[in-house]
Amino acid sequence: MRIIPRPGPAAGLVEDALADAQGRGLVDAVLAGEPTAWGDHADAARDWTGWMRAPQEMRARIPGIDGLLAGARDAGIDHVLVLGMGGSSLSPEVTRRTFGHGDGIELRILDSTDPVAVEQVTHGVDPARCLAITSSKSGTTAEPLAFLAHVEQWLGDALGSAAREHLVAITDPGTPLAARATDEGWRMVAGNPADVGGRFSALTLFGLIPMAFAGVPLQPLLDRAQDARDDPAAVRMGVALAALARAGRDKLTIIADPGIGSFGLWAEQLVAESLGKAGQGIVPVADEPIGDPDDYGSDRVLLHLRLTGEHDPDVAAIGAAGIPVFVMDIRHPLDVAGLYMGLEMAVAAAGAELGVNPFDQPDVQAAKEAANRALAGAGVPRDERGEPEDIRHAVDMLDRGDYLALLAFTTPTPEGDRLMSAMRGEIRRRTRCATTAGWGPRFLHSTGQLHKGGPGSGVFVQFLGPGQPDLPIPGQDHTFGELLRAQAIGDAQALDTAGRRVVRIDLGDDPLMGLRRAAASLGAAPAP
After folding, report:
1. pTM: predicted TM-score of the whole model, two decimal places
2. Which residues are bridge partners to 191 per DSSP?
3. Which of 174, 309, 357, 390 is deepest in the core (most CB within 10 A)?
């Protein structure tokens, strides 16, 4: 992997920041993993930098992963379900989209509490040929445990007591999930290093086990990660991104080439959750349709994840318009390991330079607590705000330097992605403001931290689906549909409490039709 900086007119600013950081010893300290690099947050860094050792330490875990894979093949497994949220599901999702099926095994990722999405994860799957991986660092995260309850009942109905042979846990040692899986005799309990946070866990067991099922060779993967770990270019890029953010260029726009197009989904969590706090941060902009150079404001920085070179002309044109560009250049999809490690190093360095703790997420809990209050109330209201709101109202709220986030609490679908992409392109064309999009509750464990704890420059459009047909959660007194709506209400309340600008739009009984109406109101036509 090569990192190629093209800061353009900002070259002087970047050079000064790098010279200052080098003079203070920051670059060398971050590269060495010295906790003092993070200043007042040194104690947190001391407890949470295990990811820096992952390319070396995970090599000893490869035989165990190989044994799990061999046993699954012997048992005729052809589907592996990954049940998780945030860092536990995002890197597996990148793996699924980048590498496809490995040796005839299909990965499916469940990180939505939408009832339709929950039911779809097992559609057409033979329980006897399926393995379900529950991934949760704490072993107590509500969503993966709800997914497990659903999948465990599905397996138990078909296989009886043999269902436990089809269950795997990835979690920290000593968690309630680890204890339960051990007591019940699951196929494997994979204990991940406790000093690795979720969003930094792609190159630990949370990412490596799904990669193995997708046919990814782990030894060369870790070799590439180690090369990136030892490269000071990533640390210098992080220092540069922090300097640009302080100068007002705080919208990191990620353009990923075909073949690694899904990588932005993981990168936006890393950037948003690590740096969006204490009223500051860098806003990651992933999967925004590429526009004309004039569509981009002076708050942008471009990060090109380059594999095929297909986007070279677009990136060159945007850079020629004066927008700083950084290129992370790889030659093979397996080099995605270098992207993981390189961005982790860059974000850790940016946190050190900005003076924030990149290893905590202090504002995530607010939405969880509000959702729990909604669930504990007398039912979950359909829309707390009365009259339906209009997406054009949200667009009118935008000022220079703002960004607009589309947050959809409904069934994730390819058509929904296209409709939100069309809206994003039209909004940017009209306003030159950056746009983001996410499916709830996935983004609550990703960009949700930035939304509440970062700069107050966001305008948030919350789309609410019907949550129907509903689905019970075995062993709980609420349904998946009620949980999803409670999470939407909780997120809106947390945003309100943080003083954010929020517009809520009920999509009605047909959520795709509701998204089409919103797009039509903007004159936005989705790509075919």
Report:
1. 0.96
2. 171
3. 357
